[in-house]
Structures are given as structure tokens and as C-alpha cells.
Amino acid sequence: MTPGMKINTWATTAANQPLAPYVIERREVGPKDVLIEILFSGICHSDIHQARGEWGNSRFPMVPGHEIVGRVTRVGAEVKNFKVGDTAGVGCMVDSCRTCINCAEGNEQFCEAGCAFTYNSTEMDRKTPTQGGYGTHVVVTEHFVVKVPEGIELSAAAPLLCAGVTTYSPLRQWNCKKGDRVGVVGLGGLGHMAVKLAAAMGAEVTMLSTSRSKEADAKRLGATSFELTTDRGTYKKLKGQFNLIIDTVSAPHDFDDSLSLLRPYGAMVIVGAPTQPSKVGAFSLITGNRRLAGSSIGNMRETQEMLDFCAKHHLGADVEVIAAKQINEAYERIIKNDVRYRFVIDARTFTA
Ligand code: NAP
Ligand code: ZN
Ligand code: ZN
Fold first, then answer.
1. pTM exceeds 0.90
2. Are residues 89 and 201 in the same domain?
3. Do 15 and 142 share a structural domain?
């Protein structure tokens, strides 16, 4: 492919439309840019929220996709850390101002100017729409590209770029360590990575799920126990047990129930992004000085650290590789809770 050329993607043109083949133009490779031939692109539930206008911020046409793994096929003259042939990853962000206090502290996701998200956003010129990873190629400034270490199968590596770092970051922020009791709420794309990562950090992990059918999987992924959140008995049995809870649920649900499971000074971190707000009772927090927090993806340093951690611990996502023509069906299956545990699109199938 010649830079600045048209490429094949899959996009949606409106919140009520399915995804379909769509041709876009990527920018020329600038001095600091890396051109990546995409190999695999994961499907995150956030893609569905945005493609269907559920967060109220959708821009169309939209090429979703922020779990990208591919091969570097060209680098700009000033690129320092990548060369042609490297295996590279791109996650949820593709640029930020690089000068504000949050960028200076290495938290690009909180850029005061607003970072450029990989899709459904704009470049920092605030005019050019960004378009995501459901396509054959992407051009990204070097700072927002990470190295995919050897030892992780590439289809299994793609979901690490969002699901991996979004769960790794809060586990590190809240100092997850050997012997901690960690609860993970919701066993989907994010949840299954939270279980694997927390177990690899030495925690004793309990899966809190609405789906009895996932019990054996939860244990295979590294949970020592599995409890149904639909059973009131679970809240009696596990009251006050956890140091940390990571809540990955994509639909509105009760926060008070899960908060009651925290030990004094324990924290529950919300990473799932339901469209409707949840009520939280003051006494759920006052009792036991419990903490309720949120966490947004992870910064670029954490993203690389997470990939290196996964390679060291031989972790990747459990994936079902699909062709582009199965994207709409995959969206429906995710909504029906029928994903084990991430769909990943084979980028060779993004044909016109
Ligand atoms: P997913 O694969 O669809 O998993 C969501 C899980 O939530 C399901 O597997 C299910 O687990 C549980 N669930 C679904 N509906 C439920 C309901 N009505 N009540 C209770 N539990 C329910 O989604 P994902 O890709 O992991 O994403 C999860 C959420 O995180 C999405 O809202 C996504 O937008 C958000 N997200 C946030 C960030 C961030 O930066 N904070 C980054 C990425 C994604 P069980 O069957 O085990 O109950
Ligand atoms: Zn995501
Ligand atoms: Zn900034």
C-alpha cells in the first residue's frame, strides 16, 4: 500500500445501521508516523456502545476498533523506536497535546486538550475525524504505538490493547498483590483479562457473574471461586471479604450490592461503562470506609508494561477469530452474552 492511499475498512454510517464495507483515506506517513498493516482487530463492547450511539457522542461514518495488532510496513524519517517488520499494537488513543500537565505526567488519556481517541474522535487539529482498526492499515504517531513482545499469539494479543490495559491499570493503581482477595464482576472481554491478570499478580480471585454456564471457564482462567450475583445468598456469604473489586459490567446494575462485599478500606473500581447511571447509597461507602473509584483505559507506559507482563506470564486473551462479514453477527452475540471471551477480526478479510 502506498501511504495516503485509500484503504478498505468496515464502518457504520448511523446508529441504526449495520457495519458494511467502506473505503477511507489514511494520511501520508509523516516524519514521526508509523504505518501498520493490521493483522488482527479486537471487538470491544465500547465499539458497540459507540457504533449504536449509546453514549450520545457518536460521529458518523465510524470505523470502530481500538484493539489493533499488526506489522510495521513503513516508518517516518524521525521515528526512533520502530522499524519495518516490527510487531506493533495500537490501543484506544492515537495522539494527545504532549505538553499539558497530564501529558507531562504520562497520563495521555487525561490530556487537558482531550486526547485523540483511535476512532469516534478527531486528530489534535480538532477537525480530521479519526477512524479505527476495522481495516487493513493505520497510520499512528510513534508515541502511541507499542511493541508487541514475542511469545503472545497475535490474535490473542489484540484484545490486550484495550481489555488488557483497562484491567491491568486499576489492578496496579490499587496495588493488587499476592494474597489479596479480588472480586471481578462480569465475565466478558474485560472480565476474563481481569481474572487472568489478578491471578498472575498472586491474588485470590472470585468471579462474580450472572452466568452459571461460565463457572468452569472462570476457574480455568484463574479464579479460585465462582459466585452467582443473581443469588442473594452470595451477598450474605461474601459480605466484607474483598480487598478490591473490579466491575466490568456493560449494563446498568446495582453498585451497593458489590460494595457490601468489600473489606474495610477496600475499593471497588468501575471500568464497565453502562449507559444509565447507578445509585450509590451513602452508607455503602461510610460503612467500612469503602472506596468507589473509576478507571479509564491506561496510559502508554502502562500499556507497554502490561504487554511485557503478559508476555512474561504467557497471558493472552481467549479469542474467537472471525471474518469481517461476521462483525454484525458478533455484535449481536456480544449483546446476548454469547462471547467466550473476545471476538477478533482477521484483517485479511477487510476486502471491498
Ligand atoms: P462484554 O464482553 O460484553 O462483557 C460484559 C459482561 O458484563 C458480560 O459478559 C456479563 O458477564 C456482564 N453483563 C452483561 N449484561 C449484564 C447485566 N444486565 N447485568 C449484569 N451483568 C451483565 O463487554 P466488555 O468488552 O468486557 O466491556 C465491558 C464494559 O466495559 C463495556 O461497558 C465497555 O464499554 C466498558 N469499557 C470501559 C473501558 C474503560 O476505559 N473504563 C475500556 C473498555 C471497555 P456475566 O455473564 O459474567 O454476568
Ligand atoms: Zn475497548
Ligand atoms: Zn495534553
1. yes
2. no
3. yes
